[in-house]
Amino acid sequence: MRSMCKIPYTARWIHQEGGIHGEICPHLVMTKSTSNNKIKVPLRAKLAERWINYDSLAHLWNDWYGNYWRESNFPFLVVRLEDLILRQYETTKIMCNCAGGAVPQPKSFKFAVDSAKFGPGHGNQEERTNLLKAWTRYSKIEVKSGFSDIDFEASKEFLDADLMKMMQYTYPPSE
After folding, report:
1. Residue 138 and residue 38: Cα distance in Å, rounded?
2. Which residues contact 166 (CB under 8 A, 6 or more apart)?
3. Sheet of 11-13: strands edge to edge?
4. Distance CA 25, CA 14 (A)
5. Higher per-residue confidence, 19 vs 62
6. 103-123 as b/e, with b when 16 or more CB fall inside 10 Å?
7. DSSP code at position 105
8. Is residue 45, in this structure, part of any structural domain at all?
9. Structural domain contains residue 171
10. Distance from C-alpha of 46 to C-alpha of 120, rounded to nearest angstrom
């Protein structure tokens, strides 16, 4: 979800509230919410050429991945970015075996140390994520994954627990 804050694609929702400057992300609920009364931050996303309303970014995540998982009548494969970053060969081997393809040899893997993205829309060289930044970002366990206290608590309520388990996501420590 935090990567959606940087590049939201077609999703549109409020990243600031009540005179606070800067971003509050993923901003699932208003900061004036209480644990008993969560005021969700609505989101609109353009999917398949039409705008769809969601209660929050967490609800979009549930719908997007949940539709594949629960409703697809065709085989599909979801590959987590962190698995490709941290376990390139092992993840690729599983993908190839699943799809019936040839498994590449480990020696055929070469690390792209610099950012693979360049050009307009990808920021300057210092802002781009290279291999070291990606390993650092995706391998460290952050307290509450960098969410605000109120967003962290809302995520535990809003995110589909079965889908989280299927994707092998767990909540980081809250302290």
Report:
1. 29
2. 69
3. 11-13, 43-47, 50-54
4. 9
5. 62
6. eeeeeeeeeeeebeeeeeeee
7. P
8. yes
9. no
10. 22
Evaluate whether residue 173 is within a structural domain: no
Residue 11, beta-bridge partner list: 45
Say if residue 53's pLDDT is above 80: yes
Q: Round to whole Å and give the CA distance between 38 and 40.
A: 6
Residue 13 in 3-state DSSP?
A: strand
Which pLDDT tens digit goes with each residue over 118-133?
656 555 556 667 777 7
Give pLDDT, residue 57: 95
Residue 37 DSSP symbol? B
Answer yes or no: is 139 within a domain.
yes
Among candidate residues 30, 134, 146, 31, the one with its CA nearest the CA of residue 81: 134
Distance (Å, whole) CA 141 – CA 147 = 12
Asked whether the beta carbons of 13 and 57 are under 8 A apart, the reply is yes
Count of domains for the chain? 1
Give CA–CA dist 42/92, Å, rounded.
36
Q: Which residue segment(s) compose the domain that 106 sits in?
A: 2-166
| Cα–Cα dist 83/171, whole Å | 17
Q: Which residues pair with 1 in a beta bridge?
A: none
Above 90 in pLDDT, residue 45?
A: yes
What is the C-alpha to C-alpha distance for residues 27 and 169, in angstroms, rounded to an integer? 20
